[in-house]
Amino acid sequence: MKRLTKTLSWLTMLSLITFISCQKQVDKPSQQQIEESTAANQNKDHGHLQQTKEYSSDVLFRWINFQLTVYRATGVGGPSAARLLGFTGLAVYESVVPGMPAYQSLSGQVRDLSDLPKTQPGYAYHWDESLNAALAYITNALFPFPAGGAATQTQNIKNFSDGLYNEFKNGGASTELLDRSKAFGEAVGAKIVAAANKYQNDWPSDWASFPNLNPAIGTEADFDISTGKFVRLSSANVALPYWKYTRLLVPGSLSGIQTIKPATFAYSNATGSSFYNMVQNIYNDSYNPHGLSLDERRGIAYYYAFPGYGGGYYLSILKQVLGKVNATLDLSALILAKAGIAMEDAEVGTWAVKYDRDNNLVVRPQTYIRKVLGFTSWTSYLGTLTPSGAPNHPEYPSGHSTQAGSVIEVLIQQFGNNFSFNDTTFVHYNGATGLAGRHFNSFTDLADGIGDSRVYAQIH
């Protein structure tokens, strides 16, 4: 069951494919950027074109903090949150990459992203303001609004962005420099939003009436104990069966991904079978690979089920890791772009596998425990915390674990696995107090914790 929830065996390969797709071209120096940098240095009337690496990540981190307030207010998670991270990473990268001579735009490499604006040769740019303008644009255009709070959120975004602009101006940047940088960042943001708005273009035309699939998936009353296929856990539509049609950011990034579940998870209702024993371990709370007390395991389950920032949790993790190494803006932009691309495309793969009728539609533990083990009123630990209990979609693979796997592979590639850090995401979530922080000795420790948490919560 641990391997089921981690989902690191095949979907993390997606991140490697994604990096190769981007890195092979991104690593090539852009002749245009070199020429523009040279021209700027020779033209003192328009200022010196500083490289992105000369900027700290402070403004980016402040924007991440701002976006986390939106995640918290809206609770956006799952594939939607992965999509937001993907386009946030692209906006950050594209708004500052002209100041990174060894790198080039992803225009033409990322699907639907083309004809991106270019900086003016011989002119300086303020990369913090370019970043500021791009993130203001996409946050306003792509992020959800709290119920009844659209006007307030729009104003908050403007106030935050304007505040940074004024801060840069008070720090000595000229209006001419800032306005030029702002116009570039906004133009980048507009292109990013245009690409983002095409993500549904390949969905079936009848997707609005598609959520129960054809043939429809019944509820637990219809569960066939002999075949063991997933059934809905409530009368609500199954969740997001159409997400597998979402356009990938990197065409072909899912090529070679196997949609056949591991043999260990072949369904069986026979006492003593692997599948039977796995689910019985869930019921008995006997999955305990690290020798933790039940209270400790429940604490981990609660931590990763905490409503918190939804899918913004991974944005928080990225910020903390980059902060620990005092990453300059160029490195932070590169890591956010990689992590966002990997997480978005990995989530598309997750939902494609969940709803693969031939090999998956794996039944959730709740149904099996009630219908096969015979504990008809059983509820998972997560079900005691949230009204919905287990999610209303097939068991395999775990979306949370897949998101973790894709982001962590990016961090391992950049920093190596033996990287210790403290996760303080929720320490001050409720003002002065919140959830206790968690310490990790490596990135795989974080992956293990997230994967294990879904078993401790009794939903995988």
Q: Layout of SSEs?
A:
Elements: H1 2-6, H2 12-26, H3 31-42, H4 58-74, H5 78-96, H6 127-142, H7 150-170, H8 175-196, H9 274-284, H10 294-305, H11 313-324, H12 329-354, H13 365-371, H14 381-385, H15 399-415, E1 421-423, E2 438-440, H16 443-456
Antiparallel strand pairs: 1-2
Features:
single chain; 460 residues; mainly alpha; Vanadium-containing Chloroperoxidase, domain 2; Vanadium-containing Chloroperoxidase, domain 1; 2 domains; two-stranded antiparallel sheet; 50% helix; 1% strand; globular
What can be said about this structure in brief?
The protein has two domains: 2-13 and 210-456, Vanadium-containing Chloroperoxidase, domain 2 (Orthogonal Bundle), CATH 1.10.606; 57-196, Vanadium-containing Chloroperoxidase, domain 1 (Up-down Bundle). It has helices spanning 2-6, 12-26, 31-42, 58-74, 78-96, 127-142, 150-170, 175-196, 274-284, 294-305, 313-324, 329-354, 365-371, 381-385, 399-415, 443-456, and strands spanning 421-423, 438-440.
